[in-house]
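User: Hey, my collaborator sent me this sequence without any context and asked if I could get a structure. I don't really work with proteins. Can you help?
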Amino acid sequence: MNGSFSALVISTVSIAIVHSFAPDHWLPFVMIGKAQKWTRPRHVWITTVAGFAHVGSSIVLGSVGILLGMAAIHLQGIEATRGQIGVLLLIGFGLAYTVWGLKHARTHDHHSSGLSGEKVITLWTLFAVFVLGPCEPLIPLMFLATGFGISGIVVVTVAFSIVTLIMMVGQVLLGMSGVQLIRHEFAERYSHAMAGAVIALTGVFLFLI
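Assistant: No problem. I've predicted the 3D structure and written it out in structure-token form, which is a compact way to encode the shape of the chain:
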């Protein structure tokens, strides 16, 4: 049993790492953070909160399914539907933010850095997208862990969550370091519009694969 459980934990960590490489796990934060001139602590805080929401929604669904004795395949169907909704919301959010960014470039001082109403709405929208965007691999892993009791489910869930959050924050910080090198005036002025376009294209990419 110990060998089997160790293999499950190693698989959980590996899947969490691969899963977190998906661009929707980090690119939106990099682009929005660049456009809104987030500080490094703000990047870490917002990414962490969104990451908790992203993983937590699947943990809740998986836990309910286990308690009610639902088959993993049924919950995967629910997760797939949530995933499609999340991707469509990501595309819609990106397009809306692009339009707002173009308007902002024409009518606002692009060096302004406060938390305006539009920026607060953006944060809540991004948060909602991540709540609806599921961690598809987590629920099957939770069901596999039921063979090792409650402690097995907890270990697998915590391991997946921690690795996912570390990967998200790490990639966001790396991406932020890269985009901060872009100092061109045009890129600064249209940073919001470009951020929205990149997010929308990320959603399209995820929809097509």
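In plain terms: Residues 110-115 have pLDDT under 50 and may be disordered. You can pass these tokens on to your collaborator as they are.
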